Each structure stands twice: as C-alpha cells, then as structure tokens.
C-alpha cells in the first residue's frame, strides 16, 4: 500500500482530531511527532509517496525533493507554502494539494490567530511570563506592567486578522491606528481605525502588532529605522511571520532596552534554536508559533488533508496548486 507521512505533529493529535479511517484502510500511515532536519528527512521520508505538512513547520526545498524519489503528493495548509519549492515539485511530478479556507469547516476557527495575538500582547505588557517563572520558583511579584486602556494600538496590516484586532482594541478602550501599503482611510475607518503613514504608526503606537502576509515586499519591512522610531516604553508584537522583522535589529534594540519589550510567536528559524539570543532576554515573551494551533483549527486542517489524500488515492486529485505536475 502507499505510504503516507504526517509531519510535525508536535502534540500527537493528528490521528485523534480527524477521522483517518478511510485513508488508513488504503495506505500505511506514519506520524512524525518531532521536527525533521533536511538531513534527517532524506532517510526518514525516502519510502513515502505522500507527505502531509502543517503550515511551514517543514521546509521542502529542491535539495530535499530531489532526494525523495517515491514522493507523489504533498498536502499543504493554505494555497502556497513559502518554504516549499513548487517548481522542483512540478519538475519531479509531485502534486501539491492545498487546503480550502473557503470550506465551511474553517468558518468557526478564523479567530485563532487574533485571539493568540491579543493574549500575547497582554502577557507582554503585564510581564506574565517573568512573573509566572518567579511564582514557579517560589518567589513573588517583581515587575510592574501597564494598562492597555487609553493607549494607542498600531496595526501593521488591516486584513482579516488586523480587523479583528481593531475590534479587540476598541473594546479595551484603545485608540487604533493602522498602516499597510494599500490601506485606504475609508477601509480603516470602517473598522474604527485611523489610517496613518508608516513612520507615524511606529512613532505614535504604544503597542505595534504585525498582521501582514510574508512576501518579498514585506520581508524585512520592520527594520532598524522603524524600530528606532518607536517610543522607549512601546512594545512590539509579532504573530504573523518572523522575517517581516529584521531579527538582528530587533535583538539589538531589546538588548539595549530602547523599547520596552516584545511578544513573539514567530521567528526566522523554526523551531527556534535552543541557544538563540531571544531566549535569554527578560523583556521578551515567547511562544512557539501557536497562532493557528488550536484543536478546532488543526481538526479543519487535517480534515482537508484527508480529503486530498483520498482524492489522490482515487486517481482524481483535488485542489492542486501546481497543475503542471499533472502533465
């Protein structure tokens, strides 16, 4: 039978959250709970015809795809995967099946990321991680946080997630300002935000929260100049994608305490290396890319994955991102 690999199931829930019985009856499924480096993946994934991924947890560059001769299908979350070499997959006849966010099964789980972003914001401005650590060690309070009410929330990006963040900000009594490259005053006003120029957003915000898609024009968008414009008592929150922020520049301003702190859910390299300098900074609250990671969201992801694998097993592949591979 065909062999199917489910990658990066860190919590060990993939087979529990969705009914895989129809796939299990026609294939041999192996679940990988740990992250595989490219070197590990060459040997571990060599026998598999199908690889099921979760977001960007696993990179699939040309150098790996070329060394997986049995690979026929990759399933991905979303319509693209930044660290997947689509051209290489097509050249080697590997189909890439994407998920369908328009499917009603996703309609009730779209708040996963904004909810995490807001929680991370509160944890950051109230020093919850540091106080939690002290409590675990037998200590008591030693830091003083700030209230969000009356402060200015700057949203870098006002798409679906950004709009929800604007709603949360208003409920918390914050003034909401926003900027993105194509944002209009009318669009911002419709969700109770005020459009400002990018420089003004960094200068005026007490909290800057990033909600942009990673692309060539957003990579490194928040660099040394933008961070220098922030107030010394301001915070940066990033639940979007790590490379939108110049990581070296961010570490420098945090180490020098030129801003108050940061809440980070995403990083240039994931999983974050154990010796990474961000792990050592007391003014940073870290979470391991949890934005979309809820039981409900993963259940929807895996249900789409099951649909895609079954369609491929039936010889009628669906939602193919690289139709040229079919030729």
Task: Describe this protein's structure.
- With 327 residues, this protein is α/β, with parallel strands linked by helices.
- The chain has two domains: 3-107 and 295-326, 3-Layer(aba) Sandwich (Rossmann fold); 112-286, Rossmann fold.
- Helix content is 33%, strand content 14%.
- The chain contains 13 helices and twelve strands.
- The chain has helices at 14-17, 21-24, 38-44, 62-65, 86-91, 112-125, 128-136, 160-171, 185-190, 198-204, 224-229, 247-255, 295-313; strands at 3-6, 28-31, 50-52, 73-76, 95-98, 152-156, 175-179, 194-195, 207-210, 235-238, 261-264, 284-286.
- The chain has a seven-stranded parallel sheet, with helices on both faces. Strands 2-1-3-4-5 form a five-stranded parallel sheet.
- The longest helix is centred in the last third of the chain and has 19 residues, at 295-313.
- It starts with a strand and ends in a 14-residue tail after the last helix.
């Amino acid at each position: 039978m065909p062999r199917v690999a489910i990658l990066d199931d860190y919590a060990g829930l993939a087979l529990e959250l969705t009914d895989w019985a129809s796939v299990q009856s026609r294939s041999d499924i192996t679940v990988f709970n740990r992250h595989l480096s490219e070197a590990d993946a060459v040997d571990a994934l060599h026998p598999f015809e199908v690889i099921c991924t979760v977001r960007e947890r696993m990179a699939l560059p040309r150098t790996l795809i070329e060394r997986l001769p049995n690979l026929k299908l990759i399933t991905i979350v979303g319509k693209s995967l930044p660290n997947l070499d689509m051209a290489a997959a097509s050249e080697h006849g590997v189909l890439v099946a994407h998920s369908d966010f328009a499917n009603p099964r996703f309609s009730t789980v779209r708040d996963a990321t904004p909810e995490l972003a807001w929680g991370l914001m509160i944890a950051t401005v109230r020093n919850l991680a540091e106080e939690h650590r002290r409590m675990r060690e037998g200590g008591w309070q030693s830091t003083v946080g700030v209230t969000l009410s009356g402060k200015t929330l700057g949203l870098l990006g006002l798409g679906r997630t950004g709009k929800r963040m604007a709603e949360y900000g208003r409920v918390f009594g914050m003034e909401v300002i926003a900027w993105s490259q194509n944002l209009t005053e009318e669009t911002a006003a419709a969700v109770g935000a005020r459009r400002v120029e990018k420089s003004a957003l960094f200068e005026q915000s007490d909290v800057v929260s990033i909600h942009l898609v990673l692309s060539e024009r957003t990579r490194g968008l928040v660099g040394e100049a933008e961070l220098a414009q922030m107030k010394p008592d301001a915070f940066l929150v990033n639940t979007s994608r790590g490379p939108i922020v110049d990581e070296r520049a961010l570490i420098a301003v945090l180490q020098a305490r030129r801003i108050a702190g940061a809440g980070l859910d995403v990083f240039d390299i994931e999983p974050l290396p154990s010796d990474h300098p961000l792990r050592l900074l007391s003014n940073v609250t870290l979470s391991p890319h949890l934005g979309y990671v809820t039981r409900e969201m993963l259940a929807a992801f895996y249900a789409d994955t099951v649909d895609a694998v079954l369609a491929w097993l039936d010889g009628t592949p669906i939602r193919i991102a690289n139709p040229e591979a079919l030729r």
